[in-house]
Design a protein that fits this description.
By secondary structure, this protein is of the alpha+beta class. 32% of the residues lie in helices and 27% in strands. The protein has helices at residues 10-18, 23-32, 56-59, 83-89, 95-98; strands at 2-3, 6-8, 34-38, 41-45, 65-70, 73-79.
Length: 105
């Protein structure tokens, strides 16, 4: 299954079913949500301010929905109204991938 240019991983499909998020909901979050790049992933977060005028009532249930994209695949989907602050606290890269021990260590 695919949304726009992203394929949905089996894990994301399972989480979408558990959390009652449809493919259309994910497409709306990808279209209107703000993008934060952290830990080698793209986080699409839909906040209240991101909802276009006239669509507030239809999209109110999606506030706080976060779609995590790694590469060309959607890796997971979850809802949390405080997710944006937690995402912004993450490091910008995985430490393990960029870790190089010092010469004297």
């Amino acid at each position: 299954m695919q949304i726009n240019k992203y394929r949905i991983s089996p894990h994301a499909a399972r989480r979408m079913a558990q959390r009652n998020v449809t493919v259309g909901d994910v497409a709306l979050v990808l279209r209107f949500g703000q993008i934060v790049y952290r830990t080698s992933a793209e986080f699409y977060f839909l906040g209240r301010r991101d909802i276009p005028r006239g669509m507030e009532q239809a999209m109110d249930a999606l506030v706080g929905t976060t779609v995590v994209v790694e590469g060309d695949a959607i890796s997971t989907v979850y809802r949390s109204r405080r997710a944006l602050t937690r995402i912004k606290r993450k490091h910008k890269w995985h430490r393990a991938r960029n870790y190089r021990p010092r010469a004297g260590a």
